[in-house]
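In pairs, describe these two lines:
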Amino acid sequence: EKLHHTTRKLLRKMVLKELGIRGTDAVFSHSTKRDRVVFVDEPPPGLVCPVCRDVFVDPRIAPCGHSLCHECVMKVNRLTGKCFECSEAANPDDFMIDDVKAVQLGDLRVLCRNALGLREVEDAGGGEADGDGGVAPPRAAGGALQAGVELFVRLDDFNETACSTAVRMRELDAHEAGCMFRQLMCDLCDVVEDEEEHKLDDGSSSSSSK
């Protein structure tokens, strides 16, 4: 019991986060364990890992029928030797790849990564939603973001400079590779970088002239 409490405390920040959009009823779910993966619909409870409370990543199933992320198996069952859900005996080697959940995960609809943006926040503590489509996500394996940076849905930019397409998660990488907004996003980043370099050059010139 004490070990389970310690494990819960260690993994408490690894959670599925809601992204609300101010002025709308739209609510998306951000998988903080992944690289900018935002679900269009609320993931079914059966696809959420009971340890990290995020959507399964590389799900594994125990002989008793309960599933965990592979990473969570290695962090929890290696210490306890028991199923996290029912306490039946289960060592890491007892867990098998959960093909059924893997297929179900692939069917979940997610936003194109070119629908998302990153922005700085003054206070990133706590990882709570800010009510404006953003959340300061925790630093978690695989989808870590720097402190003071939050992910948000660029709803106002849909179909102009941001992609509005939702695809099956198994198709996300392929869609992103051919997304018409991908190059536009890169061009916008280049413009910002050029402007920053231009400001630095102007500052250097001004200092030299003095």
Notes: The first strand starts at residue 16 and ends at 20. The first helix runs from residue 2 to 10. The helical segments are 2-10, 70-80, 99-107, 172-178, 182-209.
